[in-house]
TrEMBL record, chain A:
A Pfam entry, by short name: MRP-S25
Known partners and oligomeric status: Component of the mitochondrial small ribosomal subunit.
Protein name, entry field: 37S ribosomal protein S25, mitochondrial
Single annotated GO MF: structural constituent of ribosome
Subcellular location: Mitochondrion
Keyword match Glycosyltransferase: no
Family: Belongs to the mitochondrion-specific ribosomal protein mS23 family.
Highest taxon, organism lineage: Eukaryota
Matches recorded under InterPro entries: mS23_dom (IPR059242), Ribosomal_mS23_fun (IPR016939)
PANTHER family: 37S RIBOSOMAL PROTEIN S25, MITOCHONDRIAL, SMALL RIBOSOMAL SUBUNIT PROTEIN MS23
Keywords: Mitochondrion, Ribonucleoprotein, Ribosomal protein
UniProtKB/TrEMBL annotation, chain B:
Function: Component of the mitochondrial ribosome (mitoribosome), a dedicated translation machinery responsible for the synthesis of mitochondrial genome-encoded proteins, including at least some of the essential transmembrane subunits of the mitochondrial respiratory chain. The mitoribosomes are attached to the mitochondrial inner membrane and translation products are cotranslationally integrated into the membrane.
InterPro entries given in the database record: Mn/Fe_SOD_C, Mn/Fe_SOD_N_sf, SOD_C_sf
GO molecular function: metal ion binding; superoxide dismutase activity
Gene3D superfamilies: Iron/manganese superoxide dismutase, C-terminal domain
Membrane-crossing residue ranges in chain numbering: none
Species whose genome carries this gene: Australozyma saopauloensis
Residue ranges annotated for the Manganese/iron superoxide dismutase C-terminal domain, each copy included: 145-185, 280-337
UniProt protein name: Manganese/iron superoxide dismutase C-terminal domain-containing protein
SUPFAM superfamilies found in the cross-reference section: Fe,Mn superoxide dismutase (SOD), C-terminal domain (SSF54719), Fe,Mn superoxide dismutase (SOD), N-terminal domain (SSF46609)
GO cellular component: cytoplasm
Length: 270, 350
């Protein structure tokens, strides 16, 4: 949702409209509001976006300050911040998010793997046990690395052996590589094994794409052949008009190859 | 008819006693059998008996029976020669199967040694989800310098080689063997100067064979292409028959016949012109690029089939078994099998 600050901007907007001539007459409240602008800030602020965030000023009455005075009434500034904490949305920060960010920046192709985002209850992660990398309820992916890193960190803290976040992440990452290698070898070997036992695979998407492309390539090849002939003819004409032995001058090995190929192709097609 | 052929085979049995095969002797296993002890670090005594002395003997018996049954004369005494002679011959399929299974098993068992540091036990179900070690230290790496160097050059490093070898073996679902092979390319060998005779081996590679497969590329691939070829032949034959039938019918009405012929010529023309720019299939590319041009010589075999590990390691113990096999590989044997390496003076990486 857009940040709701329109109510405090009512004077600004109205003056713009007056200036543009959309509103002909000044509203009755215009001067009064201009003299006493709305003090309540309606902007919803995330909790940690503002540095040195103060306490909610509404809680600050009658508390003893550093100096001996008690605060007995709100200042104008306090009223502007009235009930600020109720509308403030907390910004959620997790180490896991940072790990995810690092992992997927280092392994961008992990994004290209299909991911199951439909869960019945959303509690699949509870079934996972991260004392090992492979899970029964979840395929191996970047999330495994993140969760395994967190588990390793927790474990190292409990067992007393020191392991930094980087060390834990690296260990999880290398375990992930090992398992990925095994997975890829298994996929290739399984396919080969099945082929040896007589399995015939359907056309792959890649092959299908090539098949679909072929008519266009054929059409293009014909067209290109014609155009090459025109080009050669035009070039020969130009060279012929310049001088009698110009055709020899012009023929670099590339031109020669092209024209020979063209000739060969026309012979074949004939 | 049946009776007479039996008598013939009986006669040949007497005649062919000399070419029947015996179970080859493997010194390590024979000594273990005589003392009825385990192979430390890999197999129990029971497994050795089952794997080699029972199954191996059964394979030898079957092989001899097949030789007699198929009236194979002058069977070569060498098992590898027999395999070479009998492969891709339909009538000798059973013979080939037994011969190659025996050969693969023997090849595997001959390159084993004992390793007292390792132990084996039945693995629990948790072994399925076991996290692999990320250590890059490789124990029992080959000591032979030239072999180690060749492995490093071909696979990058010893740990990469070990990972690929054991992963390939672990991925085999049914019966199968994983091989370390020395590889030569005929075309490249021919291009090099002809001073050396035959092929020059420049890389090591890992291949899998399944069931009674052998390390020979012409056996390992091309099934799909062969089937497609057969299908095409059948289609051509059917077309020809159709054509003849049409021609016979067209004999009565000449003009119609000519029209049909023109149509046929037209379609033939079209198919030829379409072929010029077509890219071809993956199988065709494999056939041309990979399989027909290579010569492979096996150096090391790892039996990845269930019967090798089920008894001692249980159904979840394949990884543990393969790890133990690695530790029990006798690299001296492997080095002795290695052909001379062709080392190009300059290497282009691409």
């Amino acid at each position: 949702m857009k940040i709701q600050s329109e109510a405090t901007r009512v004077l600004q907007l109205t003056s713009q409209l007056l200036k543009a001539g959309v509103i002909k007459q000044k509203p009755a409240w215009f001067d009064i509001v201009a003299a006493n602008p709305p003090s309540l800030d309606l902007t919803k602020k995330p909790k940690s976006l503002q540095n040195q965030q103060k306490d909610d000023p509404m809680n600050s009455l009658f508390s003893k300050r550093k100096n001996v005075f008690y605060k007995t009434r709100y200042t104008k500034e306090d009223i502007r911040q009235k009930n600020n904490s109720t509308i403030r949305i907390p910004k959620l920060e997790f180490v896991e998010d940072k790990l995810r960010d690092v992992f997927y920046h280092q392994h961008p192709w992990e994004f290209s793997r299909p991911k199951d985002i439909v869960e019945n209850k959303g509690t699949e992660m509870e079934k996972c046990d991260w004392s090992h990398m492979l899970q029964l309820h979840k395929p191996l992916d970047g999330e495994s690395v993140v969760q395994r890193t967190m588990w390793l960190l927790k474990e190292s803290k409990e067992s007393g052996k020191k392991q930094t976040l980087f060390e834990a992440y690296d260990q999880a990452r290398f375990e992930f590589y090992q398992l990925r290698m095994a997975e890829e070898t298994e996929a290739a070997v399984t396919r080969e094994e099945a082929t040896m036992f007589g399995c015939v695979y359907p056309t792959t998407y890649f092959a299908r794409g090539v098949e679909k492309e072929q008519p266009h390539v054929d059409r293009w090849a014909k067209l290109a052949e014609e155009q090459t002939q025109y080009l050669n003819a035009a070039r020969n004409n130009v060279s012929a008009s310049v001088g009698s032995d110009a055709s020899e001058e012009l023929s670099s090995i590339w031109d020669l190859g092209l024209s020979q190929d063209g000739a060969a192709e026309t012979e074949q097609s004939l | 008819m049946f009776k007479s052929s039996r008598t013939v085979s009986k006669v040949r049995l007497l005649f062919q006693r000399s070419v029947s095969y015996n179970l080859p002797s493997i010194r390590l296993l024979d000594s273990l059998k005589s003392t009825e002890s385990d192979l430390p670090g890999l197999f129990s005594n029971k497994t050795i008996n089952e794997l080699w002395y029972n199954r191996g003997q059964a394979l030898v018996d079957n092989l001899n029976a097949q030789i007699i049954k198929n009236n194979v004369e002058n069977a070569p005494a060498n098992l590898e020669e027999l395999i070479k002679v009998s492969f891709s011959k339909n009538d000798l399929n059973a013979l080939f199967t037994n011969a190659s299974l025996l050969h693969n098993l023997q090849f595997f068992l001959e390159s084993l040694k004992t390793n007292e540091d390792r132990s084996f036990s039945k693995a629990q179900i948790s072994a399925l989800l076991k996290t692999p070690s990320t250590s890059i230290k490789v124990e029992n790496a080959p000591q032979d310098e030239s072999l180690a160097e060749w492995i490093n050059d071909s696979f990058g490093s010893m740990v990469e080689f070990k990972t690929l070898l054991l992963n390939s073996a672990a991925s085999i679902k049914g019966d199968g063997t994983t091989w370390l092979v020395a590889q030569a390319t005929y075309s490249e060998s021919a291009m090099r100067d002809g001073a050396s005779t035959g092929v020059s081996f420049d890389t090591l590679a890992i291949v899998n064979t399944y069931n009674a497969g052998i390390v020979d590329d012409s056996m390992r691939s091309g099934q799909v292409t062969k089937m497609k070829h057969q299908k095409q032949l059948k289609l051509d034959a059917a077309n020809r028959r159709d054509q003849e039938r049409k021609e016979m019918a067209a004999g009565e009405v000449q003009e119609q016949g000519q029209a049909v012929e023109e149509v046929v010529q037209e379609t033939q023309k079209r198919s030829i012109s379409a072929d010029e720019n077509a890219l071809g299939s993956v199988e065709e590319a494999e056939e041309v690029m990979l399989f027909s041009d290579r010569k492979l010589v096996p150096l090391l075999a790892i039996d990845a089939s269930m019967r090798a590990y089920l008894e001692d390691y249980g159904i979840y113990g394949k990884r543990q078994y393969l790890e133990n096999v690695w530790h029990c590989v006798d690299w001296d044997v492997v080095a002795s099998r290695t052909p001379k390496r062709f080392k190009p003076s300059m290497v282009f990486e691409y």
